Amino acid sequence: MKKAFPILGVLTALFLAYAFYQALWVAPTEQTMGNVQRIFYYHVPSAIIGFMLFFINFGASIFYLIKRNPAADMVALVTAEVGVVFLTVNLVTGPIWARPVWGIWWTWDMRLTSTLVLWLIYVSYLFLRRFSSSGETPLLAAALAVLGALCVPFVYFSIWFFRTQHPQPVMGGGGSIDPRMLHVLLINWLAFSCFAFLVCWARYRLEQLQREVDTAYAMESLRDPRRSA
Amino acid sequence: MSAPTGITRVTLLKDLRLEWRSKDAINSMLFFSLLVVVVFAFSFDPTAEESRQIAGGLVWVAFLFAAVVALNQTWAREIRNQVLDAYRVSPAPPNSLFIAKVLGNFIFVSVLEALMTPLFIMFYRLRALGPAWQLALVAALGTWALVVNGTFFAAMSLRTRSREIMLPLLLFPFSSPALIAMVQATTAILNGEGAHFWIVLLATYDLVFTTVCLLLFETVLNAE
């Protein structure tokens, strides 16, 4: 990690700068929305990456329940944390865009509500991990992650029929997109995926070290109870 | 006696007897939901038309918060005197215990609902425009969804700091699909619209979550 991480960090920073340039200068200005539309290049990638990370979290949790592998638990923890951050970016950029375009900050439409509920579910997952005082927190968290993933289709179906009388002015609902915009979107998505991977990696390493330190402390106090104070 | 159903029956009867003698859960639940009814009446003028629009949400908010009161003390009783530890080392199947607890909570919350419904009708001038028997079905399915999840999450939050706060933090987000279905179904029936979709959704939710909770309960019970 010592060698590869700084190199990858610099590469990712350059890639992000390039994506930023593409999003702000190269991508064509949207005809009706104007420059406000450019938030799209941050809003959509953060949502896709958030969902991808939650999907990894689900896989890692299942793996942990079967194999009880500590690495899988760390992957689950890390992806949930970083996923919540990316989904938060998505939920914050959405209203910033919606206010000038729709004239409202928020509407209880299908996608908005389901994303918000998903965010709530994973925040409560992190709460359990934070508050749990048992040595088997990973097991409880893995069980909870499975329930959380099961919620997703239900949330989606329930919201589908929820207030369908509302207009659904969410982008991409059958509308076509300029190929140049799609190109910039893909670049941004890739750049932020690299960034997400780096953050996950650093957080994973941090968690690994933290656990090593905790184990070392525990061993130390076993060997000599007086010194551990 | 050692059959799974026997253990379920004995545990359930024990819980019911304890509750019958102390009436702790039911009294606090009743008073709590009465407070919710009164507080909501301050916030809007409960005419028949207006009530019908928001009663679905209001009724379930009252029941949800009251259910948390009962759910929180589900396992607290078993922790005293290490009953739960004794259960863990015994060969009794964990799911028998889980089903007993779920049934117990289901009975408590159903009794609460039966007692509170006349009050809601009286205070908010409710009258269903749709078939009222469907309301009973929605109540049963919705209560089941709440108590299955709630009993499971209560077991999960046993070994957390600030246990009583943890339960609603877990229960509300994870039950939100069921909550949407309950509230929408109730409102639809009160307004004389069809609620079939919501009832089917709620039944599916119950089925899936009951199955998964039964599959995972042993893991959660033994996680110490």
Question: Would you summarize the structure shown here?
Answer:
The complex is a heterodimer of chains A (229) and B (224). Chain A is mainly alpha-helical.
Q: Layout of SSEs?
A:
The complex is a heterodimer of chains A (229) and B (224).
Chain A: H1 4-26, H2 40-67, H3 70-102, H4 110-131, H5 137-160, H6 179-223
Helix pairs in contact in A: 1-6, 2-3, 2-5, 2-6, 3-4, 3-6, 4-5
Chain B: H1 4-22, H2 24-43, H3 48-72, H4 76-79, H5 83-89, H6 94-124, H7 133-156, H8 163-174, H9 176-190, H10 196-222
Helix pairs in contact in B: 1-6, 2-3, 2-6, 3-6, 3-7, 3-9, 6-7, 6-10, 7-8, 7-9, 7-10, 9-10
Q: Explain this structure to me?
A:
The complex is a heterodimer of chains A (about 230) and B (about 220). With about 230 residues, chain A is mainly α. Helices cover about 75% and strands about 0% of the residues of chain A. Chain A has one domain. Chain A contains six helices and no strands. The model of chain A is unreliable at about 165-175 (pLDDT under 50). Chain B is globular, with a radius of gyration of 18 Å. Chain B has helices at about 5-20, 25-45, 50-70, 75-80, 85-90, 95-125, 135-155, 165-175, 175-190, 195-220. Chain B contains ten helices and no strands.
